[in-house]
Write a structure and sequence with these properties.
Its EC number is 1.1.1.1. The protein is an alpha/beta fold. It is built from 10 helices and 15 strands. Helix 1 packs across helix 10, helix 2 crosses helix 3 and helix 8 crosses helix 9. The radius of gyration is 20 Å and the shape is globular.
């Protein structure tokens, strides 16, 4: 099979598509013929050695995949050859085939494989952030930064489903329109973020802020939080990890809440499973709809990762082996 391979941590351009042995299914593993592999911001950090996890090299990146089961291990209980599944292999998704424990999969029926990939990390992160970490309530105001990215768009759609008033923030007119089309109640840019949020909330501030950007934007968020607000730390797409003046949390009485979806899936697998069932139910009903910006061959993995790291992408991007 062909697979995108990282032989040593370094520049994205060092990634190579190479022939590898087909995976075999042992224990409770199943082998998927990959129809789509999701591309995520952490993948780009991982291959450069900048992520929390540093797997031994060489390795194949790719934490989410969807496709058809072509082999099952001797201990597999609930999956058969021919089933179509979404899967979280953690590594190995950027390939024509991937082996994954059946417990890290879920049935997708005839759903679009690329859209299923979007539901895993992007929608999964936003869902966990808003439901478990922020405990977002109907009638609250939600501020979504990076609202045209895959995770941001998911937060806009899920926030609306949960009954919140959503203020979306995006950098360009094109991205702002994408957020508006996703259902945001208000759409603004970054230039006058503090003043705009104060104006749109009549000076009260926001109950929940969903921050995937970090840097100066995080600093602005700390100044527009309502009392009892929750500032969600999702990631640092700006490349800058901010310093937080804790006295602001004291005097304004808001909480800064970390969101690490990967840790959540391992620590609370039953809750994660229930979340995925809810997301798939919303998806099948048409209540959420991922935006797939592009589908690319394996060979284009380096340039697509670079676009994501440089905040040039909108919606979800996937590899199609």
């Amino acid at each position: 099979m062909k697979a995108v391979t990282c032989h040593a941590f370094g520049p994205l351009d060092d990634l190579r598509v190479e022939e590898q042995d087909n995976p075999t299914a042992t224990g409770r593993q199943v082998v998927l013929r990959v129809e789509a592999a999701g591309i995520n911001y952490p993948d780009g950090l991982l291959v450069q050695g900048l992520y929390q996890m540093k797997p031994p090299c060489p390795f194949v990146p790719g934490m989410e995949a969807a496709g058809e089961v072509i082999a099952i291990g001797p201990e597999v209980q609930g999956v058969k050859v021919g089933d179509r599944l979404g899967a979280i292999p953690q590594l190995g998704g950027y390939a024509e085939q991937v082996a994954v424990d059946e417990r890290a999969t879920f049935p997708i029926g005839d759903a679009d494989a690329a859209e299923v990939c979007a539901l895993m990390v992007a929608y999964g992160t936003s869902h966990h952030a808003l439901k478990q970490r922020a405990q977002l309530q109907a009638g609250e105001t939600l501020l979504v930064l990076g609202a045209a990215g895959a995770t941001g768009l998911a937060a806009v759609q899920i926030g609306k489903l949960m009954g919140a008033k959503v203020i979306a923030v995006a950098s360009t007119t094109e991205k702002q329109q994408i957020a508006r089309d996703a259902g945001a109640d208000e759409v603004i840019g970054y230039d006058a973020l503090r003043d705009d949020v104060k104006r749109l909330t009549d000076g009260k501030g926001v109950d929940v802020a969903f921050d995937v950007v970090g840097g100066d934007v995080f600093d602005t968020c700390t100044r527009v939080m309502a009392r009892n607000g929750r500032l969600l730390v999702i990631g640092f797409a700006s490349g800058e990890i901010p310093k937080f003046p804790v006295n602001l949390a004291l005097v304004k009485e808001f909480a800064v809440v970390g969101v690490f979806w990967g840790n959540f899936t391992k620590a609370e697998p039953q809750v994660y499973g229930a979340n995925m069932m809810e997301l798939m139910n919303w998806y099948r009903k048409g209540q959420i709809k991922p935006l797939i910006e592009g589908r690319y061959p394996l060979a284009q993995a380096p340039e697509v990762l670079a676009r994501i790291l440089n905040r040039g992408a909108v919606g979800k991007l996937v590899l199609v082996p």
